[in-house]
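Quality-control log, excerpt.
Job 1 of 2 completed; input and output follow.
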Amino acid sequence: MATITHHTVAYANDKQIHYLAAGPINGPLILFIHGWPGTAITWKSQIDAFSAVGFRVVAPDMPGYGQSTARRVADDYCQEALVEGMMALLGDTGRDAAIWVGHDWGAGVTSSVATQHPEAVKALVTLCVPFHTIERGWQGFLPLVNRELYPAEEYEFGQWDYMRNYEEDFEKTIEWFDQDVAGFCKAGNQPSAPISTRFAAITATVRKAGWFGGLPKPPGVELTGPPLLPADVFDSFVGDMQKTGLWPGSAYYLHHARNAEYNGKLVGKLDQPVMFIHAIRDVVCDTKTSRLMEPMRDACSNLTETTIEAGHFVHYEKPDEVQAAIFRFIVEELPSEWPGFWTAGYTKRKGAVAV
C-alpha cells in the first residue's frame, strides 16, 4: 500500500486545492483527475499501483470537492477557472509537464489543459469522455447523439437531458441530491450490467420524469448492494461528499456557453501520445454506437484506444484492467516516462547462440 501524503496549494488569491501524493519525489509525474462525483481518494487503486512501480502520483480533490475550496460560487467551476487551478497544482509539484489522466468531468478538465497548455501535457489519457467534446460546450457533444436511439422530436437533448435539467432547475436538483448524499453516492457505485441491446439511458428523461425515474429522494444505502469502491475508500469518499454537498461539483454543468468560448478559440490539435478508454457498458457516455469519438479522432494524431467491459466508473469496476492499459500505453508510446528508463541499464541482445 502506498504511503500517501497530503498537500495544499493556494491560487487565485483566495482558493486552494488539496491533493494526495505518493511515490518517489523524482519519479515520472502522473496526475489523476476525478469527475462527478468524486474526490482524490477514489483513485486509491491507481495511486497504489502507479506509485509502486516508481511514478510520482498526484490526485487532487477537484475544486468543489473534499478539502479543496468548495464555495457556492458558480464562477469557480467554469473550465477557465478549473484550468487555472490545475496549472497551480502542476506548479506545486515542481514540474512543468506531466502525464494527465482524467475521468468524466476530470476528462473535460484535462482536455481543457491540453487545449490551453499543450506544453504541460506529456501524454493525455481520458476515460469515458473523449477529448474535444464536453469541454467545448453543447456544440462539442450534442450534435453527436445517436439519433436512431434518441429521436430529436422525443429526446431533444438525447442522453444529456440531465445536463439541461441543471441549467433549468439547478437548486431543486441539488435539494434532491442532498436529501441523502450517502444513498445517492452508493446508488451510483453499483456494478454495471451487460448490455444485450441498446436502450435509452435514464438520464434522457430527467426533465420529464425526475432523477432515478422520479423517486422522491435518492435510494437509501440499505436499498443498494455493496459499492464498487473498497469499503474504506467508499466511506472516505462519502464523508467528503457529505461535507460539501453536491452543489459545488454539480456547478461544473452550468458553463456550457462560457466553456465553448474559452476552448473554441483554439484548434486544440494534439501530437503527443493520447489514449482513450472506452467503457462498453456506459450508456450515457456512449462512445461505441454514437459519433462521440469523432472529434477526438480528428484532433489527435497519435491516438490509442482500448475497450474495457465495464460501466461509467470503469476505474472502480475494473481497476486492474485500467492500470494495465495505461501501463502498456506509457511503455509503448512514451517509454522515457517509464520509471528507471534512463538509469536501469536495460540492454536488449538479439541473436543469442544456442548452447
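Job 2 of 2 completed; input and output follow.
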Amino acid sequence: MFFSKLVMAALAATVLAEKTPVTPLLLANFERYAAFASAAYSSDCANPPFNSTVVRYINDVPTDTQATLFRDDIAQQFIISFRGTSDIQDFVTDLDQVLVPCVAQGIQCPTCLCWQGYLIQYNAVANTVKSAIDAGLLQYPGYSLVVTGHSMGGALASLAAASLDGQGLPLIAYTYGQPRTGNQAYANLIDSAFNGTMYRLTHTNDGVPQIPAQSDGYRHHSREYWQSDDPPTIENTFQCQGQEPSDCNQSEPGYGIGNGGIGINAAHLSYFGISTGNPLDPNAAC
C-alpha cells in the first residue's frame, strides 16, 4: 500500500512537472496581443495598441460579427482581432452550441465539427477578412500575420486561423479565454496545422475555457498557457501539456476535468493586466 502511494505521488509530480514557466519573450508577446484582443471591443479605436494603425473595421450586422485589422509598421505585422461577446445577439450566438460540420473556406476536415453559432459568425465575415488581409499583404509584402481574439473572439480567431492557414497564409495565433470550439477532430486539426504557433491563453479560474463540456463532444486543442496569478510574471505563467491539461486552468477549485464550467467571471474580464471585454470599460486598450 505504501509503495502504491509512492508511485501515485511520483506520477502526480511528473504530471505537475510538465507545466513549465514561460520565457520573458513569450510573456511580452502574450501581453502585446492581449492589448489587440481588447482593442477589438472598440468600434472606434482612437489610440490603437503599440502605435499601430487601424486598417479596417469589419462588421457583419445580421450576425453582429466584428473584427478589426491593425497594421503595426514597427513590428511589420498585420493583426486581425476578433471581438468577443458584447450584446444580446452575441449571447444568442453563444447559446447556439450544436456541433455541425466545420465547413469554411480552407478547412479540409470531413470529420471536424464546430460550434454552430461561431461557425456562422466566422463565415459571415470570412471573405471580407481574407480580402482585407490580402490587400494589406499586397501593399506590404514583407509583413507577417497574427490572428487574435478574446472569449467568443478567441473561438472566431481559432476558426479564422484554420481557414486562413488552409488558404496558404502563414500566421501565428493568440486566443484569450477561448471556449472549446470544436470536437476531437477539430482539436487534432489545429494541433497538426499549428505546431507551436497557436497559443491558447487562460487566466486563473476563468470559467469560459471550461465550456461547453467535453461530455457534449467538445475538445480543446493544445498549447494552453495559463496565467495562474496576478500580476503576470514568468514565474506564474506556464506552458501546459496536452489538449485538456488538468493542472492548469482546469485545476482551479470548482472545476471538474472538462466539465462544470461557470462561464463568465471576473477572471475572464482581464488578461495579462489588460481589461478585456469588460462592458464597463469597452475601450480599455484604445
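Post-run check on job 2. Residues 54-275 form a domain with the Rossmann fold fold (CATH 3.40.50.1820).
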